Amino acid sequence: MLRTVLSLAVLSIATAGFAGDCVNGACGLTPGYGPSYGAACGPTTCYVAKTIMVPEYYTETVVVKSTTYQTEWKERVVNYTVQVPVKTQVPYEYTVYEHQTQTRTENYTVQVPVWKDVVQNYTVQVPVYKDVVKEYTVQVPVWKDVVKEYTVQVPVWKDVVQNYTVQVPTYKDVTKEYTVQVPYTEARQGTRKVCRTVQVQREREVCVNQGHWEERAYTPTTSCYTGCGSANWCGSCGTGCGPAGCGISACAPAPTCTYKVWVNNIVKQVVPYTACETVWSDEPYTYNVCLYRPEVRTCTYKVCEYVTEPRTRTCKVCEYVTEPRTCTVKVCEYQPQVKTCTYKVCEYVTEPRTRTCKVCEYVAEPRTREVCYTVCVPVKKQGVREVCSYVSEPRSRTEKYCVVTPVTVERPIEVKRCKLVCQTIQVPVTTCCAPINTCCKPVCCDD
User: Fold this and answer.
1) Which residues, at least 6 apart from 239, have a Cβ–Cβ distance to it below 8 Å?
2) What is the pLDDT of residue 251?
3) Is the pLDDT confidence value at 40 over 70?
4) Span of 135-149, 306-320, 373-387, 420-434 with lowest mean pLDDT
5) From CA 281, how far away is CA 230, in angstroms rounded?
6) How far apart (Å, rounded) are the C-alpha atoms in residues 441 and 430?
7) Among 40, 59, 291, 414, which one has the highest count of C-beta atoms within 10 angstroms of its own C-beta?
8) CB neighbours of 20 closer than 8 A, spacing ≥ 6?
9) Is 392 exposed, middle or buried (0-12, 13-18, 19+ CB in 10 A)?
């Protein structure tokens, strides 16, 4: 069985000691005698073929089982009970109140009016009129003619000569200088930052799986082993492994089977790699700048100036002259005047008098009377009324219901798997020692 191992393939380098042979007499010299050539050996690189396990991914279609649910409608009979109303006639007894008229004798008292003649004394106010003469003063208006003097303002128009000045506009041509900014382009030199990507060699520590395959043996414990033979370890019936029929008792001892197991060995190694770095540098460049230079120009325009000019005109001027005048005015004056008048004055005189009046007095008088009244008498009667009662009645009906049934469905899916594949590569190996003189032969270190 292959185990999925995700690791980086790294070089497994086994070095053997060759430098000691060169120093300790590999050149045919006795140690301690003559010159030592161990310090004169230099490293040499050679390539050795190595087999490594590389993970290879492939896609495999696997049939998996999944459960889906199907909705199914079924019918069933449901029993239920209905309350049915039943009306019945039930006799009952009830009480009714009937009105009965009865009479009774009542004693009562009435107030009987009695009229009497009574003499009353009283006084009255008798009016008496008298003539009274009275004097009074009135203001009598008297009109008189009075002469009154007054003044009026009479307008008089005269011709007057007036001097005045006017502003007459005069236009002149004036030349004026002005400055304008004329644009022009100028090339300048500048320095800007430029970003470039540079490859840099770096080292990093990685984990390498330097595992190996191991063969392991096991003996099956079941009576029939289906791994070694086609039917069991006896072989097929009649093939010479056992008698015809191949019973269990005729089987040979169970064989020993082997299988391969991958043993992991995770080793940390430093591996060189190439990285990209961003490097900023200054780079000169030429750019254009828009500048403005002043330029003097002239223009001619008209200027309006006002000149003072004296003039004369004749105007009419109104002047008011005071004139005395007289008029006659009526004036009202009031003079007092005494007059007399006669008017009647009413005075009241008290006179005693008598009169006869009828006075009503009430005398209590007992009397009797017959009074009719109504009495409610309870009377029992028999009647029949309708009573509604409910009776349970069993019934049945057919209804639909939903059933969800699980269904197992097989469907193919794609699964990514990994297996280890042997790959042969060339590995650079550094020799333990390489001679500079002709003392030693160049030998690469073996695995």
Assistant:
1) none
2) 52
3) no
4) 420-434
5) 76
6) 15
7) 40
8) none
9) exposed
What pLDDT shows up at residue 410? Answer: 87
| CA dist., res. 84 & res. 104, Å (int) | 59
Amino acid at 429: V
Please report how many Cα atoms fall inside a 13 Å half-sphere around the Cα of residue 276, on the Cβ side: 3
Q: Are 53 and 424 in contact (CB under 8 A)?
A: no
Outline where 144-216 has alpha helix (H).
none
116 pLDDT above the threshold of 70: yes
Q: 151-170, pLDDT tens digit by residue?
A: 999 898 888 898 999 999 99
Radius of gyration of the chain (CA): 77
Q: Do residues 207 and 219 touch, judged by C-beta distance below 8 A?
A: no
Average pLDDT over residues 299-305: 89
CB atoms within 10 A of CB 209: 19
Residue type present at position 217 = A
| CB neighbours of residue 63 within 10 Å | 8
At residue 207, what is the residue type? C
Alpha-carbon span 328 to 237, nearest angstrom: 181
Give the Cβ contact number of residue 234 at 10 Å. 20
CA dihedral 389, 391, 397, 402 (to 10 degrees): 80
Residue type, 112: V
Give yes or no for a contact between 151 and 321, defined as CB atoms under 8 angstroms apart: no
Residue 295 pLDDT: 92
Separation of alpha carbons 257 and 226, rounded Å:
12
Give me the helices (H) in 102-210, please.
none
Q: Are strands 45-209 and 266-430 parallel, antiparallel or unpaired?
A: antiparallel
Calpha distance 82→176 (Å, rounded) = 118
Q: Per-residue pLDDT tens for 198-247? A: 888 989 888 888 888 888 887 766 544 444 444 444 444 444 444 444 44
| Tokens encoding 202 | 């770096």
Compute φ and ψ for 439, nearest 5 degrees.
-70, -50
Question: Which amino acid, residue 286?
Answer: T
| pLDDT category of residue 294 using cuts at 50, 70 and 90 | very high
What's the pLDDT at 426?
Answer: 85
Q: CA separation (Å) from 431 to 13, 43, 49, 414, 445?
A: 11, 6, 15, 49, 5
More confident residue, 429 or 220: 429
Structure-block tokens of residue 155: 């307008």
92: amino acid identity, one letter: Y
CB 55 within 8 A of CB 7: yes
pTM of the entire structure?
Answer: 0.21
